[in-house]
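Dear U.,

For the methods section draft, I wanted the exact inputs and outputs in one place so we can describe them consistently. I've listed the two proteins in the order they'll appear in the manuscript figures. Please don't edit the token lines directly; just add comments below if something needs changing.

First protein:
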Amino acid sequence: MNLSGRRLLLIFSICAAWALISWAAIYKYLSHGKATAAILLSILFIALGMHWLDRLNQQQWPISAGWFLLLFLILTAAFAALYPISLKHPLNGGSDREDALRIELTAVHHHLYPYDGETFLGNRPTPLPGAMLLAAPFFALGHIAWQNFLWYALFFVFTIRFFRYRGTALFFLAVFLLLAPPNLSDFTSGGDYLTNFFYIAIALALFIHFLDRAFYASIPAALFLGVALSSRIIYAVILIPLLALTLQRTSRTRTIALFVIVLIASAAVTLPIFAPHAFTHLLEQLDQNAAKLRFIPAGLHPRVTLPLLAVIVACTTFFVRMNLPRLFLTFSITSFVMLAPFVVTFALHDERLRFNFSYLSVCALSFSLWALSRYEDISTETLYCSCERA
């Protein structure tokens, strides 16, 4: 496929990723006519923005840090305006993700089992001990939601370092954090769903960065990754493509040592919370997710087949040359395999459950990191070809 064809395909894929996670929230609060118009105008804006971004990158136009600061201030203003409203639990109940962390950490503070309570929506809390540990300092300060400011700021830094051009980083952050309604809602309600992805992405980048450094320098990155992986079970599958990448970048001995550190850190954070019957309680906790598969025909055995399919997809990475963008692409596919069936069946069962499309936000974010990095490569190739002709 020529450069123009690849460019159009990537523009379409970014628009599709945004629409996939945003349409349900837009239709929830607008009439069908207004919602359709809003989605079409947004897609047009994203497509034109990517066309403009391509020209901007080819011209290597400098983007100052002030634009990122402005975007962060806009998100902060949105939080200041909407977070107090979310605490009143309006709009069909709102989000209980912050409440889940608060219940867990309160129980741990009183030496109780953290998964016996219920949120204000009547749900059992699901964040795993890694998420609890990383949120604990902010719980001690009295505001768990404040952790979002730290991880959002660090994710801003990550995207600036991840992409070749600052314009791409700014475009990605604006489209998928500010202009994607479910993602903005998660931030302004104090939720940790995106925050989990942010510190996983940062931990992966640090882990890979230190593969070429002295072994002792890579130990903190491995420890941090182990803690971050213990936030939600869905991130466990990312260890497979990471193993493929690590084996390609360093020796088997060092790979084994680093992964042992990652697994020990994850186990050290996770298992004590579920003691004295650690594995039994852990399986019971993870089994809560089975309720999300209740509308999938039982004959398909989704509790087994979906994770197995995700593992098979992840194992294909041993046959390709891996890098960080391809790692995100793999995670986007594997997470989609595990999340999309329950999201779609929920939406088909009852239109009031369409809000579950927000669960696909991590798939869209991960995929868009890869897609926009490929879009940058096309801009660079186009610039190179233009220079050769000149």
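Second protein (the one for the lower panel):
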Amino acid sequence: MEIGIYTFGELTSGTAGQRMRDLLEEIELADQVGLDVFGVGEHHRPDFVVSAPAVVLAAAARTTKRIRLTSAVSVISSDDPVRVFQDFATLDLISQGRAEIMAGRGSFVESFGLFGYDLQDYDALFAAKLERLLEVRSRDDLGVFPRPEQDPLPVWIAVGGNPESAARAGLLGLPMALAIIGGYPERFAPFAELHRRATTEGGHDYRPLSINSHGFIAQTSQEAVRTSFPAFKAMMDRIGRERGWSPLSREQYLASHELRGANFVGSPDQIVEKILFQHDIFNHDRFLLQMSVGTLPHKDVLRAIELLGTEVAPKVREALAAQAANR
């Protein structure tokens, strides 16, 4: 299993410049401790620092060696798919074949008005622009340059709670990144099955599945909760005021950390147990953890990345290797 991190580059305190420098240091450390993937999201709001993931990832490419660099996500509905391809093809050349695109609708809608699109065209825009992105990826006779080092440049589809999106990813022969940020994970198992069935129906070989979730790691579960809850609550309550959610309680937060909850907050051993528990449900190929939900102290994020890479990932890989050997 590939294990990695994704972030939206939250900015709730300090300067944008300092947050960006901290983010680049986080990517460098993730590479150094042996994590497989680092994803950076796209937002167009004052509380997030990243609006151009490919630029950030290109900066990180020069100071990393092996970690894969992906958007998380690229909101292609409101972007130019040709330009998205060119940006990530350029990143692929800089990184010597480590770039990926995670294409999605996005969980915020600010980009639509910003770039002159109508939200009423939400679904049609996504379908048309995804088709165009895949067309320029597969054909080198359209005058779209540069061409990437990888052929084809990996494109994943990010899916939340939409079964049609899971089926579309499978029928197109694309890997799927399934976001689980609430509820019981087993309720999402039909999405994985739908994606695999559609992949077969589309005449494609097996395509990978990633589970993407919120969480935080510290040496003890108590420390993980104490460090992460204030920032998580501040972020969720701020978004909740925009969307009509009730304020997040500490009891709700703690409940989400139980084995059958959605969040991965706890000690390294607890995170290992939960990844393996979900692997029994999904048999997924990749796990990405969003640890900076709200702005956390930089030193604590670095320590969490270190724990994920040096303690969690090796134990998960060892356990899955033992399971495979015993089959």
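Candidate sentences for the figure legend, describing the second protein: The chain has one domain: 2-325. The two ends are 17 Å apart (CA to CA).

Thanks,
Y.
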